[in-house]
Write a structure and sequence with these properties.
Blueprint lengths: L4 H31 L6 H25 L13
Helix pairs in contact: 1-2
């Protein structure tokens, strides 16, 4: 029994939201460091970028599973 693509897309959207939260946490960590007079940890900023790339990929996968959302194509009217 296979899973429905729409169900998988929904789960991927949830994962995308979790990844967005993680990326924001890393950004907060980097900005807290700057506010404290330091410099952002390069490992933290690199991790944020990696998480953001993963989120974009997950969002793209969810979008692909949803399929086209455009209006149905209708035949052109003749002259």
């Amino acid at each position: 029994m296979g899973a429905d693509p729409a169900d998988i897309a929904e789960r991927l959207r949830g994962i995308g939201e979790e990844l967005a939260d993680l990326a924001l946490d890393r950004l907060r960590e980097a900005t807290d460091s700057v506010r404290a007079g330091g410099v952002p940890d390069p490992a933290v900023t690199a991790e944020e970028k990696r998480i953001t790339r993963a989120r974009r990929s997950v969002d793209k996968a969810a979008s692909l599973l949803d399929g086209p959302r455009s209006a149905p194509v209708t035949p052109e009217e003749g002259p």
